[in-house]
Amino acid sequence: MLKEYKADQIRNVAIIGHGGTGKSTLLEAMLFVGGKIDKMGSSDSGNLVSDFDDDEKAKKISIKSSMGFVEFEDVKINIIDTPGTADFIGEARSALQAVETAILVVDSVDGVQIETEKAWRYLTENNIPRIVFVNKMDKERASYDKVIENIKSSLGGNIASLCIPNGEGENFNGVMDTVEMKLYTPKGDGKDVTIGEIPADQKELVELEKTALVELAAEGTDELIEKFLGGEELTPEEVISGLMLQLKAAKLTPVICGSSQKVIGIKNLIKTIKNFAPAPETGKVYTGHQPGDAEKTVEVKLDDSGSMAAVVWKTAIDQYAGRFNYVKVISGQVTPDTEILNAGRDLRERSTKLCAMIGNKQNDMPKICAGDIGVLVKLDKAVTLDTLSDPKNPVVLPIIDLPQPVYSLAVEAAKRGEEDKIGQFLNKVAEENPTLKYGFTVSTSETVLSGMGDMQLNLILNNLKEKLKLDVVTRTPRVAYRETITKKAEAQYKHKKQSGGHGQYGEVQIRVKPLERGKGFEFVDSIVGGVVPKQYIPGVEKGLKEGLEEGVLAKYPVVDVWVELFYGSYHDVDSSEMAFKIAARNAIKNAMEAGGPQLLEPIMNVRIFADKEFMGDIMSDITSRRGRVLGMDSDENSSGIQVIRATVPEAEMLRYSTDLRAMTSGKATFEMEFSHYDPISGREADKIIEERKKFLEEEANK
Q: Whole-angstrom Cα distance, residue 342 to residue 323?
């Protein structure tokens, strides 16, 4: 049974960075040095602790985030290893919500790469502390100095070298600690180290770094800077304190180096995390809201003695072992047999087994305290993004921010009768990974699977075929166009059926005008004198909404329309809510015909990350896609990654991930999210309307 740790004894870190920088091997080395595994595995052998999934072993890359932990002195370090491929960026973003510090891994030769740049920007935007680990210092052409300069020029920020390599490439054999002024050399298999003196020929260099480090540390507090400027020497404890305070505020980035494969510098990394990385902050306030009412805010403090509240940041479903919900406890404690309210879903469950994971191996925990990360086993209904809370003090904590899907496929069963089985599988996969969206799109009449890239979706569909022997037909999804009006108009419709017996009667007269883009639908009741009795007004509004479900150009939903009911008539006997609903539905159709109907297309906000050499080609390509380049985030003196910001019609982005990869030889990535709808006219609109009519005819003839 794992020892119990309080918040100040916990360090939560996520290993992030570009693919191929050795993140999973770094976790392996940390577990090895921390005594949690007896032998180092490797990607080539397919026995890495974190890459235990069959697809990960086959492709030799991380696809899902996984966990491990080490206990060092009096501290428990929870470590989340994350994928570095853009298709699986959601796994990294989820992990970053559960930790206080990121370990950004950088290759000793390749330096800052696209995913390094993206990760740094995300950390900066969200004020997340980070430690850079320069890995593979044993690699041919490794250069610590070049990487440091690359980081400074490409990423910026205050960089503090906490160690310097002793040798590089095949001569790399240890690290020189600039805080302690000691040389750390691996002993035997690397699990332990020998601590010695700095070599004489390196001492001057290390002392220069120590001086720079002390100056940076002095900026931590006013007291330290006064002491430093007064010529007094800072104690080792004050240096550590000053650096720690600045790291916690994300104002300074410590850099250390090593080789995860040769287990060099790993003890220093663990020590650095213990000494410098911030613990979960007792008293930190998280703002949530009451279930079902986002306007009523609820504040939750990170406090062991508070009411239980935890966020599910990852869900994994094993066909044999069941469901594993990875949680970060924000307040209170979770113990076995705790009654839990899934606040967002209004479902109650009871916790059974609690554990800390090392890869796919479970380590039983007596409880999960505030600030700690653990796993609730077989909690059947919870999924990623859910908040679990005390039923007596329910709260929803929307603290996880995930990227939007950028690649979609319309999917349908290759054989009739297999739709339900396919749907169950894809729904389960979407529960595990919230960057995946799966469902039926009413406006385009198709089932769509969306994710972060073609690699991600192809892996899922291959698993569907290989594991369940179910095949699907895929194609490019249809675009969800909309319709609107461009001018004011009036319309009248009288619904009248009086052919003996109880009849139907309802007359409405309406005015319409276009609304500002994104405003949706607005209804105004201006009836005076009871010409349309109050009990029939809800029927009128329902009829208007139904009428707006299909426009007059191509039967796409209608948006951004203001409608005023200003006159009408009724019959004492034959009028009903249904009669007025039918009248309103027809009146809005007439009003749309007279209101200058126009087609709208979805426009996406796009951010493209690429090297400078590709900027011209990418911007020309964006223009050819009817896009508009908004700007470029760059530093003229930087050799790093540039970011193009643009708006592009969704119709032009359906296969952009494939096209961008081909254009840049896989050296660029992009992010995309919906922005707004824009009018589309001319030949493009005519083509869309014609294709839509053809599709509707085919559907009607099925």
A: 15
- Dig out the tokens for 405 from the structure: 């899907």
What pLDDT is stored for residue 637 in this prediction? Answer: 40
d(CA 378, CA 363): 15
Enclosing H/E stretch for 521: strand 521-525
The whole-angstrom separation of Cα 38 and Cα 147 is: 32
Among 11, 131, 13, 7, residue whose Cα is nearest residue 71: 11
Distance between CA 98 and CA 128 in Å, rounded? 11
Q: Is 544 left (phi over 0), alpha (psi -120 to 50) or beta?
A: alpha
Cα–Cα dist 363/179, whole Å: 35
Q: What is the DSSP string of 175-192?
A: EEETTTTEEEEEETTTTE
**Which backbone phi and psi does 12 adopt, to 5 degrees?**
-110, 120
Tell me what the pLDDT averaged over the chain comes to.
92
Q: Provide CB contacts within 8 A for 346, sequence distance 6+.
A: 291, 292
**DSSP for 378-424, written as a single string:** T-TT--TT-EEE-TTS--B------PPP-EEEEEEESSTT-HHHHHH
Task: Give the model's pLDDT for residue 500.
Answer: 65
Contacts of 223 (CB under 8 A, 6+ apart): none
Chain center to CA of 13: 17
Q: Which residues of the chain have pLDDT under 50?
A: 635-638
In angstroms, the Cα distances linking 480 to 453, 591, 696 are: 20, 23, 14
Q: Where are the alpha helices (DSSP H) in 199-332?
A: 200-218, 222-229, 236-248, 266-276
Cβ distance 3 to 99 under 8 Å?
no
Structure tokens given for 37: 């595994």
Backbone angles phi, psi at 692, to 5 degrees: -65, -45
CB neighbourhood size of 444 (10 A): 17
How crowded is residue 660: how many other Cβ atoms within 10 Å of its Cβ? 21
* The two three-digit tokens of residue 78, written as one number: 């929870």
Nearest in space to 252 (alpha carbons), one of 218, 210, 209, 222:
218
**C-alpha span between 548 and 585 (Å, rounded):** 8
Nearest C-alpha neighbor of 327 from the set 527, 514, 498, 78: 78
Strands 174-177 and 163-166: antiparallel
pLDDT at 33: 95
C-alpha torsion angle, residues 247, 250, 256, 257 (rounded to 10):
160
Tell me what pLDDT residue 59 has.
87
pLDDT 10s digits, 82-106? 999 988 999 999 999 999 999 999 9
DSSP letter for 575, please: B
Residues 527 and 510: beta-carbon distance below 8 Å: no
* Rounded alpha-carbon distances, angstroms, from residue 668 to 85, 652, 697: 11, 18, 41
Q: On the CB side of 221, how many CA atoms lie within 13 Å of its CA?
A: 11
Angle at 117 between CA 113 and CA 122, to 5 degrees: 150
The residue among 642, 497, 695, 544 whose CA lies nearest residue 112 is 642
